[in-house]
Design goal:
- The chain is an alpha+beta fold.
- It is built from 4 helices and 9 strands; from the N terminus they run βααββββαββββα.
- A 5-stranded mixed sheet has the order 5-8-9-7-6. The chain has a 4-stranded antiparallel sheet with strand order 1-2-3-4.
- A hairpin with a 2-residue loop joins strand 2 and strand 3.
- Helix 1 runs antiparallel to helix 2.
- It is elongated, with a radius of gyration of 22 Å.
């Protein structure tokens, strides 16, 4: 075994964010309304509607939906790391620490195409009967089958590199 190959060494790393155009169009459109409210009512002083909300409500809505919502979605990212001891995932900001799948618990793995909406109901952290998916974009992933028969799908834009990194790491492990 190579002595320079340590347990925490990252063999493969990928960071992915939501890139679907339709999602960003929706987020931008949803954030425009509070911006308009802020500009029209708070800055220009023209009250909105027959029973306008107080300025502090308009400012709060602007902060939450005009700034907070786009920043929140921009901050979401799936971080995938292949290390000597296993596959480590962090879906920021939902996971404070990496979720680890150790090679000793993995029965099989394969790179594959999948149908995000049909198989998992979309993107994100998706719980389905018998497994879970972690994905943010696209239709390519690495399917893990654990020894307990639970299936884990990890979305990736680099399926071949991901697969080869696992193969390299597994070949350096002695179980």
């Amino acid at each position: 075994m190579n002595s320079t190959f340590n347990k925490s060494e990252i063999i493969f790393k990928e960071e992915q964010r939501f890139r679907q155009l339709w999602l960003w169009v929706f987020i931008i459109l949803a954030s425009i309304i509070p911006w308009l409210g802020l500009i029209i009512q708070v800055i220009l002083g023209q009250k909105l509607g027959n029973n306008p909300a107080p300025d502090w409500i308009i400012i709060l809505m602007w902060l939450v939906f005009g700034i907070g919502l786009p920043l929140f979605f921009y901050s979401i990212k799936l971080i995938t790391e292949v290390r000597k001891d296993g596959i480590h995932l962090r879906f920021f900001p939902f996971h404070r620490k990496f979720k680890s799948y150790y090679y000793s618990d993995i029965e099989s793995y394969e790179a594959r195409k999948y149908k995000p909406i049909r198989e998992y109901g979309g993107w994100g952290i998706r719980l389905v009967i018998g497994g879970i998916a972690f994905n943010v974009y696209g239709n390519k992933g690495l399917q893990l089958v654990l020894k307990n028969k639970k299936k884990i799908l990890v979305g990736t834009q680099k399926p071949e590199e991901f697969y080869q990194a696992i193969k390299k790491a597994v070949s350096h492990n002695a179980f």
